[in-house]
Amino acid sequence: MRKGLLTLAATLLLAGGATGYAVWSGGPGAAVSEPRDGSRTDLSEPGRLLVRDTATGLVRGTRTRCERFYAAAGTGVCLTVTPGAVPGTHALILDRTMREIDRIEITGIPNRARVSPSGRMISWTVFVTGDSYNENGFSTWTGIHDTRTGNTTVNMEEIPLIKDGRRYHSADVNYWGVTFASDDNRFYATVSTKGRTYLVEGDYAAWEARVLRENAECPSLSPDGAVLVYKKRMPAGAWRLHALDLTTRRETPLAETADVDDQAAWLDPRTVMYAKDGDIWAVPADGTGAPRLLMKDASSPAMT
Amino acid sequence: MSSRRVRSAAALLGAAVLLPVVHALPGHAADGLISQGKPVTASSIEDASLTPELAVDGSASTRWASEEGSDPQWIQVDLGGAATISRVKLTWEVAYAKTYTVQVSPDGANWTTVKNVTSGDGAVDDHSGLSASGRYVRVHGTKRGTPYGYSLWEMEVYGTGGGDGGNPGGSFTVATAGDIAGSCDADDGTDCEHERTARLVESIDPALVLTLGDHQYDDGTLSEFRKYYDTTWGRFKDKTRPSRGNHESYDPAGEAVGYKAYFGRLATPNGKTYYSFDHGGWHFVALDSEEPMEAGSEQITWLKNDLSRTTKKCVAAYWHHPLFNSGSKGYNPVSLPAWRALYAAGADLILNGHDHVYERFRPQDPDGKATSAGPLALTVGLGGAGNYSFTHKVHPNSLVRLTKLHGVVKLNLTDTGFSGQLVQDNGRVRDTIPATACH
């Protein structure tokens, strides 16, 4: 049944390509993109702020509906949930006109989505239930897709992990919140094991991750690759955004004092943006200034 | 059901009638039977009890049968060296060939037809007076006489030359699977998945059993190994050549402590959990993808040196984590440096487990480009653990994907190549791995 609907949507898209828009109102969650010639959105155009509209789920200014969205350098990623008796979740890879060029079936509830600064490496995190070794009541599966080779690692939890200078083995490791550097090789992410969370630095080509420090989740690397902003669990239980200078290893709390549960994105070389209370906010990444409201009723911010 | 019963009766009848014939003298005094016990391969088997060796075993009560209802099919015997062939005698089971050729070849690749039969009627076809030469003899059936497959009680080649009898370094059989024992044991009988696959391995009676990691769930402790695995797959432990999986790393007593204690020298023949060995014309490499396996690591350096030293024409490598995978876990870059080293050395076969599915790939290079210069890879995570599904995305070189089954892959290895079958625990052949020449 679900397959039939998707095929229908694909057929409509193909048929509509010559005349302009093809709109399929197949229900919430279905991702339908405008054909290339009808698009007003260009993901390769620098300096454009894209957000997901909370009310409609659409990426504003497009006809693409996503649970999570991100874009960089002409490549987008859209996590969608197709409704039905057995909901299907997909990571859609979008070209600069928001046209779907690849799709990967994933299982779970969309949580994070990222594209590397060059547009080559895509990553996402979903929540899953029912994993064995499930101590916290949920697990995460984090995937990495290389658009150049087409290779998809569905769950990166098997990456060799170095902790305290030694290879670490545990059945309960979970990763989330990947952020890639501009070389498409170095990346950062969160790993959890035995009830603790750690920031790791990864090397995609060598396929290895090393623990850098404890208590740093959902890192986001600055455009110059020098600073990570992440959420840090405070003693009272709330998450608070912090910045880590990767050279000096100095950690600085940002001026946003509220509880933030998001993987921040960079608005400009000195400012991060994030979802809070249903809106998008921005705050300087060096601990100065104050948070300011950037966009009402939106989430998943991405600056192209 | 009824056809099966009729067929059994016919088989019994056939055996009774044929027994004296088998021992008849060949036509020429100088010409001997040169095919018996020689390496033999076939395009398919009907089930695990009807393998091609049974057509050259000198017994008129055992037989080879191809899968039912499928044309064409073939069976070929490697005489072990150049031979002059004067006579080929075929003793058909009820499932005979109506149209078939008898062919000879010097190399197993280029065939010459020496007999063309278009109105076969089964029973015994005794083709004498031949003057053919070659090392390989093949019976190639193109039209079946019945709805069954093709089945031979015996295929006998007479002449002079060929190999010197026996089977030095020739054909042998290997059984392989990973992801094996849960918390049941042999006493649970066929309710226990790994008891079923163990019985299958025993029926195949391979020369070697290559295990692809995750022998014992959940943590691979020594007590778990003794309680479960040892009662089933432990029955052929002495011919098992294990490789380590991630579940062998979870032992609370320490990484792989239970695994090493259980398998002893078999797990670490040279003190390491990766090792190599030769059997027949093959060089085998067992790797440990739970140990560092990145470019420049001790293991990859060892692998490159090991591969550069081998003089064997055929190379197979096996370890737990597959590189390419349309199963639930997807691409695993941990295996890329090993693939690069094996591809550079012209390796022929790569066997992995981990994803609890079966997948067969087209020969390809480490970057996923299809090429006959690359190894053929199989994922065989079917030893007994609960199956996974194929989700995310099908790899472009993936040819066969099967799940919701337990079983093992049976490989027929010769000095020059390999073929095989995925055999399910009910004896059914679910996939036929085509005859492939070594690089």
UniProtKB/TrEMBL annotation, chain A:
Keywords: Signal. Residues 1-20 form the signal peptide. This is WD40 repeat protein. It comes from Planobispora longispora. InterPro entries: 6-blade_b-propeller_TolB-like. The keyword Signal applies. The lineage of its organism: Bacteria, Bacillati, Actinomycetota, Actinomycetes, Streptosporangiales.
From TrEMBL, chain B:
It comes from the Bacteria. It holds the Pfam family Metallophos. Coiled coil: none annotated. Keywords: Signal. SMART domains: FA58C. Residues 22-160 form the F5/8 type C domain. PROSITE patterns: FA58C_3 (PS50022). Residues 1-29 form the signal peptide. One of its GO terms (molecular function) is acid phosphatase activity. PANTHER family: ACID PHOSPHATASE RELATED, PURPLE ACID PHOSPHATASE. This is Alkaline phosphatase. It comes from Planobispora longispora.
